[in-house]
Prior knowledge:
Elements: H1 3-34, H2 50-53, H3 56-89, H4 92-97, H5 104-136, H6 144-175, H7 180-206, E1 209-211, H8 216-228, E2 235-238, E3 249-252, E4 259-263, H9 271-286, H10 289-310, H11 312-319, H12 329-367, H13 370-384, H14 392-398, H15 404-417
Parallel strand pairs: 2-4
Antiparallel strand pairs: 1-2, 3-4
Helix pairs in contact: 1-10, 3-5, 3-12, 5-6, 5-12, 6-7, 6-12, 7-10, 8-9, 9-12, 9-13, 12-15, 13-15
The chain binds zinc ion.
Amino acid sequence: MDDRRQEAGVRERREAGVALVVLGVVVLAVVAFTTPWRALPPGTVPAPDPARDFTPLQLARAAAFDAATGPPGYLSYGLGLLFAGLLVLTPFGARLLGRLRGPWWLRVLAGVLLLTAILQAVRWPLGVWYEIRLREWGLSTQDWAAWTGDRLKGLGVSVVLTSIMVLAVVALARRVRRWWIPAAAGAFALTVAASFVYPVVFEPLFNDFRPMPDGPLRTALLAMAERDGVPVDDVLVADASRRTTALNAYVSGFGATRRIVVYDTLLTTPRPEVELVVAHELGHAAHDDVLSGTLVGALGAATGAVLLFALSGLVRRRTGIASMADPRAAGVLLGLVSLAGVLSGPAQNVVSRHVEARADVHALDLTRAPATFVAMQNRLASANLSDLSPDVVEYVLYASHPTAPERIALARAWARLNGVPEP
Ligand SMILES: [Zn+2]
């Protein structure tokens, strides 16, 4: 390499380094300013007390379910981490993908498929184990054909999205020296686009959605949304009962694709409790939580693209792949994406738990019914066999929501602060 090229390389890496620092600071600043760190004034929320609201039988069932599903869950998590580590830190991926032949784009696609197939083959028995547990505990309503179909569809979606991303990075690296610039822009755009079309493109692959049938419940929910000032045309019902007995509701999409969905399993629940569940979802809609989550995710993806460029020296030494222009880089890319997801998970959970607490406060403000809120939390936790007292590791890795006892403690604090009888 002559001096001029080497100088240019140093300059490009420095530019990427600066961009990385700037983007990193922007992500942290956006998270710091958009996360509702305190749903209620400090010092007002008592410590959660599972024994106060849950019977010894409920506590024992939750603990036993946690123990039954823990091993397959942790093993699958560990395997994912191990596989990603192999791809990023060893020449394993390069050697394997080096056997593929054909034009570069075909080798990239085949590489993504091959590595996904290997990881899934190893993980499959753990998925079966987990599903068997769900059935033993009465949470799953699927047969093996439906379960397999679901899993393959999920894999298909993930392979398509990953292939687009990996193909784009390799294509850019083959054409543009400062490929991190279009890669970062593309990662941002792809994340926003995927989140926007998610409810209309991906969700229908897994569930049928129909407008909630006319009746007192629908009327009450739409009236509540209007009282809340959240424009809602419809509440959709998903046929979740084809898969699970769990009770749930969610908001997805933003702008023109935003929708509030309740599981059909929730429809036999007493109306005031369904109203509280939907009031919580209205909280997400009112605060545009999906949009801000998407923007943070998109900024994170852009930062990841720059980080990838900055890490290419390390990757070269560890994996023997000279640059991301090499089709064998598909392995490194898959590994890095999966590591980024796993490693950022705990931080995402911290933010998510605060966003969820704000939606709970929104629901309480709207309904002023903390006693119903407590009853609803109790019902949801029982039906879903939620972990009522997760250990630190479970809480850090898995808890995207506060626990039911934490949410109940929040409702009690809200009642005290608002002069409503404490449940
Ligand atoms: Zn929520």
